[in-house]
Amino acid sequence: MTFELPILLNNHFELRKAEIRDFAIHYTTYRDNIFFRQSWDRRISIFDEDAPSYWIYHHNRRIGGVCMEPNLLSSFFLAPPYEDAHSVFIQLKERLILISDSNKPIHAYGILPYQTEHFLQLGFEPTESRRVMIRPTESFELQQLGEGFTVSTPQLEHIEQIAELLYHCYSGRDRIGYPGDNTIEQHTSALEYFFEHNQLDSIRNASSMVYDSENNVAAICLISMWEDWPLISNVAVLPSYRGKRIATHLIKSALNELKDSYEVLRLFVTLGNPAEELYRNLGFYPGLAQTTFKLEQR
């Protein structure tokens, strides 16, 4: 095992390289379970062996940890009784500027609500805030969709139609609902991955697509597996068909289908997306938001 010398910062702070499993145990203990991961083993297994993990020391006492490399900070936590996060972030910012490519922005990932004010004061700007929501699966008595709509299970041969639907659903002001690049090519690539990696019947049958009376795809709800539990990976309704409770029908249908095989269903939502109100009305419980920040160096 290679020993690395401590990285000395200002004001009696320093960074010391951390062994990854020990780091993961401390991170999991002191960090909120914002993704509702279902077990201790699942939570501590999220770090790769080569993760750039460091202990944070102050006056020779360990006070927390962080993952840090050029232009990137993540997985920050503090351990009681230390609480002066602002002083720590000042030192981490100075270190990041020193080691980073000055032609590229510095990104800070997974910043929790009680940490965001510190990053704003240090000149970082938020680029995206998301949260996970969760609810138990449940059997519902479903109402029929309006006349002219038919529901079927999405298949691989539907990728082109679904990609076009998603492109239109996430255009304009609805862009907030999709975290990636809103292009046909991006959606096609994501859908190819979805169909390749979600082949369990229990998951496939929980996904739905809706056709209108002219056989055009009007809505989609795609259910995938993420860390051993089902996840709503995409739910979208064409603007012209919104307000008809189609998304509600599709999500309830998924909860019905999953009931016999899984206990819960999760989803990601971007803060500011009007769909969050729909999810709350359907009984999804919100986890803490996490924000991505960016610091431009030029």
From TrEMBL:
InterPro entries: Acyl_CoA_acyltransferase, GNAT_dom. The keyword Transferase applies. Keywords: Transferase. It comes from Paenibacillus cellulosilyticus. This is Acetyltransferase (GNAT) family protein. The keyword Transferase applies. Pfam families: Acetyltransf_1. Residues 149-298 form the N-acetyltransferase domain. GO terms for molecular function: acyltransferase activity, transferring groups other than amino-acyl groups.
